[in-house]
Write a structure and sequence with these properties.
Blueprint: H1 2-18, E1 29-36, E2 39-46, E3 75-78, E4 82-84, E5 87-89, E6 92-100, E7 104-110, E8 127-134, E9 136-150, E10 156-173, H2 176-187, H3 193-205, H4 210-223, H5 230-242, H6 246-263, H7 266-278
Antiparallel strand pairs: 1-2, 2-3, 3-6, 4-5, 6-7, 7-8, 9-10
Length: about 280
């Protein structure tokens, strides 16, 4: 009996030593992954809360370097070289440090991304890019520190920072156009209909050579004429309209409308009807 009690006590002690109480973190971590054009961007940061406190100018003093969040410093990773305020930021990971002020913030991308908080010894040689951005006051308060990607285009995005009633944004540009042009040049040695279609739509969206776009979309439609694709025809109508060929645009839109209605795609049917009305064909 004594041996049994002793064994039970040993197990109980072992359990009490190994057991750990799990509680929520006061500043939970967050991770965001965003593709901008063809560039993959990953953001990792912690999210402190206001909890009734005054943040900027008090908890986060004006004019002093801030880790931009809580716990381990905030990091951002780019799969390609990007440009910030005319400065090239090489592909890789960076810590984001900020110096908040009432009217503007300094934002620093620091090549040593492995600190916990701000570096004990600042090294100007590790400043990969630095910019200043205007403070915008919001009409409401954001309780949890928030970072996001906004104003997405094929060639750029804005890294937004929100907390309390403050918003600041840093625009970065990505090398999408160069990569797409290289891809188009390479693929056009032996392209298929999807290649012609993608190249044409890209040129339309980016306001590039519309005559080339028209040539490519016509080729894509011709290559799929046995089984017409209403989404190809939709883009053909828009490209011909942009190129000033109204008759060609109307013809393509009517064909796209017929295909969309046959496929039961109400969205494409509506878009084609709206365009045909705009062009005076309905």
């Amino acid at each position: 009996m004594k041996k049994l009690l002793l064994t039970l006590m040993v197990f109980a002690m072992a359990f009490s030593v190994n057991a750990q109480i799990k509680t929520p973190q006061p500043s939970p971590s967050a991770k965001m992954e965003q593709t901008v054009g063809l560039t993959d961007v990953t953001l990792e940061y912690s999210r402190p809360a206001m909890r009734g406190r005054t943040i900027f100018g008090d908890l986060v003093p004006y004019g002093k370097l801030w880790r931009t969040g809580a716990n381990k410093n905030t990091t951002i990773t780019f799969s390609d070289d990007v440009t910030i305020d005319g400065q090239t930021l090489k592909a890789g990971s960076y810590a984001i440090f900020t110096k908040p002020n009432a009217e503007s913030w300094d934002v620093v991308f620091y090549s040593d991304a492995n600190n916990w908080g701000t570096p004990q010894k600042w090294d100007d040689a590790k400043v990969a890019a630095k910019t200043s951005t205007k403070v915008y006051k919001m009409p409401m308060k954001v309780e949890s520190f928030t970072m996001l990607f906004d104003d997405l285009t094929n060639n750029s995005a804005v890294l937004g920072i929100l907390w309390e009633d403050v918003y600041v944004g840093v625009k970065f540009e990505v090398p999408t156009d160069g990569a797409v042009e290289a891809s188009i040049k390479n693929v056009m040695n032996g392209p298929g209909p999807n290649d012609y279609f993608s190249a044409a739509v890209y040129y339309l969206q980016e306001g590039k050579d519309i005559n080339k776009a028209q040539k490519w979309i016509d080729k894509a439609v011709d290559m799929t004429s046995e089984k017409p694709r209403f989404w190809y025809l939709r883009q053909q109508s828009l490209i011909h309209a942009k190129a000033g060929n109204k008759a060609g645009a109307i013809k393509a839109a009517k064909a796209s409308l017929a295909g969309a209605e046959k496929a039961g795609n109400a969205d494409y049917a509506k878009m084609n009807k709206d365009s045909l009305k705009e062009w005076g064909a309905l």
